[in-house]
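JOB MANIFEST
job_type = single_chain_structure
chain_count = 1
residues = 255
[input]
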Amino acid sequence: MSETTKPSWLVDEPFVDTDLGVLRSGKEAQIDLIERTGGGELGRSCLLVRKWYLPRSVTRKGQLEALGMQKASAFRHDVQYREGRQFRKSRDRRAVEQMTTHGKRLLQDRWTSHEHDVMAKLWRAGVTVPYPVSFDDDRFLLEYVGHREVAAPQLARARLHGRDLAAAADQLIDGLRAITAAGWAHGDLSAYNLLWWEDRLWFIDFPQAVDLAANPRGLDFLHRDVTNVCRWFDRRGLDLDPEALFAELLAVISW
């Protein structure tokens, strides 16, 4: 989708969502496939992904099953990603610091809204990311990449060789330039949160994205991202110099 072709009926007109099943369930979120029908007299439809952040705490047996989830979130060391993101109310800050039930709920909401906001900015900047449709509490709706019969594979599972591998590397570098120029580091980039579909490389999974200006460890995360993906391409016979690429990315940052 592009800014000029984004269908307004996705959010501005009545619609009906139909669950088509679970695509995958990871340590942080369950990914469901949704068909949204809407527009004039519900005459249009498209496939969306519902990213459902899993609860950070479970208080009773069977709670996840009752919610339609498969397991609880276990994201660790998230404090280093949250540096630079502030809670305005002191009561909320204390709740997060003490990891009370209220604090955990605040963090859950913050991760969801943060990922949506970052992806919206990157989408507007021309980065190949799925269009972020909407978010609400612990649920995030975004564009689905793939066909009804098969989802786009992760780059790690796409089995690229030759020209396709070189094309993916070129698109990776272009995407990293655009993400960095927009002031962000992915924070957890690897071949498992990149998709390959119809000769295009898609960047996904941004809940831990860090603001390069606000987070004191932002450049460390950027360097780690670059090193991870360059190492993956290197193991497949395509030489990418991580230090040269990192230096190139530093040059596009607007401080």
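[summary]
The longest strand covers residues 15-25.
The chain has eight helices and nine strands.
exit_status = 0
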